[in-house]
TrEMBL record:
InterPro entries: NDK-like_dom, NDK-like_dom_sf, Nucleoside_diP_kinase. Major role in the synthesis of nucleoside triphosphates other than ATP. The ATP gamma phosphate is transferred to the NDP beta phosphate via a ping-pong mechanism, using a phosphorylated active-site intermediate. Belongs to the NDK family. This is Nucleoside diphosphate kinase. SMART domains: NDK. One of its GO terms (cellular component) is cytoplasm. Keywords: ATP-binding, Cytoplasm, Kinase, Magnesium, Metal-binding, Nucleotide metabolism, Nucleotide-binding, Phosphoprotein, Transferase. ATP binds at K11, F59, R87, T93, R104, N114. The keyword Magnesium applies. It catalyses: a 2'-deoxyribonucleoside 5'-diphosphate + ATP = a 2'-deoxyribonucleoside 5'-triphosphate + ADP; a ribonucleoside 5'-diphosphate + ATP = a ribonucleoside 5'-triphosphate + ADP. It comes from Marixanthomonas ophiurae. The lineage of its organism: Bacteria, Pseudomonadati, Bacteroidota, Flavobacteriia, Flavobacteriales. Homotetramer. It is found in: Cytoplasm.
Amino acid sequence: MRTDRTFTMLKPDSVEKGHIGAILEKITASGFKIVAMKLTQMTTADAEEFYAIHKERPFFGELVEYMTRGPIVSAVLEKDNAVEDFRTLIGATNPEDAAEGTIRKLYAASIGENAVHGSDSDENAEIESQFHFAGREIF
Ligand code: IDP
């Protein structure tokens, strides 16, 4: 299992608000190398599968609606200790709790619409990268 890669999505709110460039700049300035990236839109079935772990949660319907309402930027990022360092860079799930200078503090509107995704383990980084990208799309 690689420990130097993670998976991210710039969620629909980030794309709608024109924050793609600023967020990617922050990611690369923080030492992450982009090894896969595309603009794509998840179907309802895609989002239900991607977030299956949350299917019993009260916000599941809202989450699927949000994540499918427009395009996202999905990417695979490379850096030593990628998963943990990227979670630090994006900040807490709820932007109100996120540290100053984190991506969610800067760009997220709420706990639901929180600008970015970051994998929470090396295992999930691998699963999520393969969910979004074919092998030949990851460099
Ligand atoms: P994470 O994205 O910080 O890992 P998770 O708990 O895995 O957080 O939740 C996945 C996503 O579900 C969040 O990023 C957010 O978009 C959404 N979400 C989490 N908790 C809530 C909530 O209480 N209300 C609405 N949406 C939520």
